[in-house]
Structures are given as C-alpha cells and as structure tokens.
Amino acid sequence: MWLYVAAVLAGLYLLRRWHRERQTVPWLSEKYVLITGCDSGFGNLLARQLDARGLRVLAACLSEAGAARLRADASPRLQTVLLDVTSSQSVAAAAAWVRERVGHQGLWGLVNNAGIAIPSGPNEWMTKSDFVKVLDVNLIGLIEVTLSLLPLVRQAQGRVVNVASMLGRVSLFGGGYCISKFGVEAFSDSLR
C-alpha cells in the first residue's frame, strides 16, 4: 500500500516538474534585460547566456575593454553601456540610454550584479575609506541604479534581481563586503 502511495506521489512530482519546465515566456525575443557588472564573472556569463536564449541584453560594463570583450563573444543583439555605479552622473546617463533603447516596452529585468570584495580583512586593519569603497559599489550603487530604473521595470511589469551572498547572513571576515551584502538583503526585502 505504502509503495503505491509513494509511486503515485513520485509520479505526480515528476509530472508537475515536467509541466513547469515546459512553460515558456511569451515574446522572449522582445524583452529587455539590463545586467550590471558585465566585464567579467557572473555578469558576463549571464549576459552571454541570456543573449543566446534570444533576450535583448543591455550589458553595463565598467571599462571599454570589458565591453569590447563581451561584444566579441555575443550576438549583435547584445548592447553595452559604460556604467560606474558609484557615479551619479554615470547612473543617470546609463538610465537615459536604457530609456532610449527600451522605449514604451519598459525593462523586463534588472540584474544588479556589480560588486567588489576588496579591500577586506580584520576590521582593525581597515579604515573608514576601505568600508566606504565597498559599500559605495555593492550597496549604494545598487540602490541608485534600482531607483533610477524602477519606473521602467514597473512599466514592463518586470523583475529586479539583486545579487547578494550568503555572507549577507553570516559574517565570516571583516571589511565592508558582508555589511554591504546584508544591506542588499534588507533593500531587496523592502522592495518586495
């Protein structure tokens, strides 16, 4: 008896999983996604993967060299913009550039990926400017980019994805990284 119940539950689970994996987003090739921090790492990888799936990727890079490398690895559909999340002028210029690209469609996705971890070390070795440098990129920059683009995300009924870390919940070392990721968790909760 229990074996039959387990088999039926396993079958229902597999059927549900198959159904969820078969669902697709309509008009995927018409949707715009902005990703920050695309020079290297997770942002670069995500930009290339979403581009390969047909989305219109707007990749924000810190350097022209990083943007050129990404454009060389992607389709012509992917567009890059230079963005320093610590500069209000750069954020405003990038927001205007995104607004011009997406038009009335809005921004279907905003992925706040830009971040740094260095300088880090025991808190006694850090200075205030060491903390501020990391917090400016990982938290304050993320907040400014989000607030600048939130009207476009709402217009498309899109989503905001903030890249945090488990170190936002458990602090394993000193410096601004864990503090900034804890702040990202709190900001994300307040956006919900």
Automatic annotation (TrEMBL):
Gene3D superfamilies: NAD(P)-binding Rossmann-like Domain. One of its GO terms (biological process) is steroid metabolic process. Pfam families: adh_short (PF00106). Keywords: Oxidoreductase, Signal. InterPro entries: NAD(P)-bd_dom_sf, Sc_DH/Rdtase_CS, SDR_fam. PANTHER family: RETINOL DEHYDROGENASE 16, SHORT-CHAIN DEHYDROGENASE/REDUCTASE FAMILY 9C. This is RDH16 dehydrogenase. The gene is Rdh16.
